Amino acid sequence: MNIDIANRFAQNPLLSPLALKPSREGLEIACLLNPGVFTFQDKIWLLIRVAERPMQKPGIISFPILKEGGIEVRTIEIDDPDLIAKDPRIITYKGIDYLTTLSHLRLVCSDDGINFYEPEGYPLLQGEGEDETFGVEDCRISLIDDTYYLTFTAVSSHGVGVGLRTTKDWKSFQKHGMVFPPHNKDCAIFEEKVNGKFYALHRPSSVDLGGNYIWIAQSTDGIHWGKHKCIIKTRQLKWDSKRVGAGAAPIKTEKGWLAIYHGANANHQYCLGAFLMDLNDPSLVIAQTDEPIMQPQEMYELEGFFGQVVFTNGHIVKGDELTIYYGAADEFVCGAKFSISEILSLLIYV
């Protein structure tokens, strides 16, 4: 039995690639997706992943790489025998993997949570240094005291890891480098310390044993992490059989820390589920949904740059109302509302 309890915005998609201008001449926006979400100056803000690529020409694949001082565009003929291009997101050329797009993070804001615009005077967040030459992606945002913690996917030929930056005003940022080395992503920091410690969910992946599982870690300063523990695994023959990963910062409820997560099956269909952690010891998972609480069903979720995808890494909590903003089909930004109590009622305790 499949359950979808999402109340999607009637205005979806809220943002599509044509809504924003490319960051550089000669590039086009292929996708807007997977926004981090926060409130600031009485507005709702999204930090959107903007995936760009060179204008494409017939018979040629062009892709960008970030270099010091700018972007280098590389081109490969489609019939080149050394090219493998089965996935619209990744190509392999002469045994080396490249992304077909280069992502940066861009701010938009809204008074009503539906109509978004780019504010003046705020910078783009772009890849910097050798660990981010393929871009920065899928930022989670956690407000702790008066500081926003930004955990994002840092991508380069070295691998995929988790970078961290912090800010108080969204105009100046402190860079903390890579806090979880490759291969790792989907990092969400709790917005409240537990027993004096920072906690974070993250998703390491093994090339040998293990799988794409959700882990939890502790820290005394929010930068250096240890005491890692695997807490959520994939489940055979279920909707989350291939990979799982955390969404935004877990939500504190009377019953425990509620986390929204994504899961994918062998057909690369991405859905959303939830699990619950103990209030005093978040390394203990006490309940999990058996079926997804949201799955691709609208046309803008089924068809796009990479279809059959709903993916969230940002939300707003107001009482019992949970508003998530999500990437649909790896191309559009959309919104949906949930009842937190309804999600809690669907959990199966372990």
UniProtKB/TrEMBL annotation:
<protein>
    <submittedName>
        <fullName>Glycosidase</fullName>
    </submittedName>
</protein>
<dbReference type="Pfam" id="PF04041">
    <property type="entry name" value="Glyco_hydro_130"/>
</dbReference>
<keyword id="KW-0808">Transferase</keyword>
<dbReference type="GO" id="GO:0016757">
    <property type="term" value="F:glycosyltransferase activity"/>
</dbReference>
<dbReference type="InterPro" id="IPR007184">
    <property type="entry name" value="Mannoside_phosphorylase"/>
</dbReference>
<dbReference type="GO" id="GO:0016798">
    <property type="term" value="F:hydrolase activity, acting on glycosyl bonds"/>
</dbReference>
<keyword id="KW-0328">Glycosyltransferase</keyword>
<comment type="similarity">
    <text>Belongs to the glycosyl hydrolase 130 family.</text>
</comment>
<keyword id="KW-0378">Hydrolase</keyword>
<dbReference type="InterPro" id="IPR023296">
    <property type="entry name" value="Glyco_hydro_beta-prop_sf"/>
</dbReference>
<keyword id="KW-0326">Glycosidase</keyword>
